[in-house]
Amino acid sequence: MPLEFGLWRVDDDRPKRVATRPMALESRLEDLIEADPDILGKRLLLIGRQVPTDHGKFIDLFGIDAEGGLHVLELKRSRTPREVVAQLLDYGSWVQGLGNEDVREKYAAYARARGLAEELDEAFALRFGGGPPDVLNSTHTLTVVASEVDAATERIVTYLASGYQVPLNVLFFRHFEEDGRSYLARTWLIDDVEAVAPAGPQGRGKQEPWNGKDWYVSFGAEPGGRAWDDARRYGFVSAGGGDWFSRTLRSLPVGARVFTHIPKTGYVGVGTVAGEALPFQDAVLNVDGESRRTTDLPLKGDYRSGTGAPDAEDREDRREWVVPVEWEAAVPEGKALWRTGFFANQNSACKLRARFTIDEVSRHFGIG
Questions:
Q1: CA pair distance 36, 63, nearest whole angstrom
Q2: How far apart are CA 27 and CA 223, in angstroms?
Q3: pLDDT tens digits along 103-148
Q4: In terms of DSSP bridges, do strands 168-178 and 139-146 run parallel, antiparallel, or are they unpaired?
C-alpha cells in the first residue's frame, strides 16, 4: 500500500482534519530544502544543486553528512517509478567513484554559484562543529523526494533496499493548507539507517591525499609545564607524560615539515624537523650555531617530570621527548592563527592532509 497520513487540528477536544491541497511541491522542494536542509530530518551540508554527472544528467540536490557520507536527493517530479529509481541507481554508480578532491570541487562550484566565500572545511565546521573527516564519501545514500508515493515505487524501493542493501530510500512529503497557512509533513519509507551502504570498490581510497612531507604537531603548552616561548626560541617541539603522548611525536622523520598547533589557541609555527627525537635529558639543540644540551638551557617551562626510563613495574615511558626543529616561521602564542575549519587532532603528531589548513597557515606565515 502507498504511504499516506493525515493531519488534524484539535479545538475544544474535537479533531478537525486539515485539508490536503495540491501544490507544485516537487518544483518548489529544491528551494525549500536548500533554504533549510533540516526539513529532511537529518543534518546535511548541501554541496551541490543541479550537479552534472559524467553521464550527461543532473543531480537535483547533493549533500554531505557529519561522517563524510554523501547524499543524493532526486525529486520524483512527473517521472514514473521505474524512471526515477533507474535514474538514482545511475547516479549511485557515478557517486561511488568520487574521491576526496572531487567532493571538494563540487562544493567549490556550488559556493561560487551562490557567492559564498567559505571553503568546504569552513562550511563543514560551521554546520557540524568540527572539520571534515579525512575520508569523504565513505558511504552514500540515494533518496527519492516525492509529494506522493505510488505502490509501484514502494515495492521497487523496498525490494532493492531491504533485499539487496541498495542505499535507496524515499522521503515522502505531504502538503496541507488551512486559513492561508501551509504545512509540510514528512516520513521515510524505510528506517533510514537500513538504507546506508558503504562505498563500493570504485569509491575506495577517498582519503585526502598526503603530500608526503607535511605533519601536524600539537604542542601542549600549559602553566608549570611546556612553554611555547622555549620551543620558539631554541627550536624544538616536545611531548611526554606517557607512551600515548610521545609515541607519535617520536615517529616524526627528519626533514618533515611540521605545522605546530597549541590546543585551544591556534597555529604558531611551521618548521622542518632537524634531528631525531630524544628524551629531554639527552637532547641537543642547535642554538645560534652552537650545540647546546636542553638541560643546560635557561628554559621557562618544566620538562623534567617523568625523566626516568620505564622500570620493570611501570612499563609506561613518561619521559618528555624533544624533536629539534628549524623554524621557517614562529610567532608568540598571542599571535596564533586559528580559523573555523582548521585541522586539529588529539595526537601529538600525525600526517597533515588538510589542504585548507596547509594553504591558509602557509599563506599567513609567508611559507612557500
A1: 12
A2: 59
A3: 999 999 999 999 988 899 999 999 998 888 888 998 899 998 887 7
A4: parallel
Q: Are 70 and 63 in contact (CB under 8 A)?
A: yes
* CB < 8 Å & 24+ apart, contacts of 60-65: 60/30, 60/145, 61/30, 61/33, 61/34, 61/145, 62/106, 62/110, 63/37, 64/103, 64/107, 64/124, 64/132, 64/136
Angle subtended at Cα 155 by Cα 152 and Cα 156, rounded to the nearest 5 degrees: 85
* Cα separation, 276 vs 252, whole angstroms: 8
Rounded distance between C-alpha atoms, residue 283 and residue 363, angstroms: 32
Rounded CA Rg of the chain: 27
Contact in structure between 74 and 145 (CB atoms under 8 Å): yes
**Terminal alpha carbon distance of the chain:** 63
Look-up: residue for cell 557540524?
128
The three cell numbers locating residue 40: 529532511
pLDDT tens across 329-340, in order? 999 999 999 999
Q: Which of 270, 272, 263 is CA-nearest to residue 323?
A: 272
Cell of 140: 552514500
CB atoms within 10 A of CB 171: 22
How is residue 131 written as a grid cell? 572539520
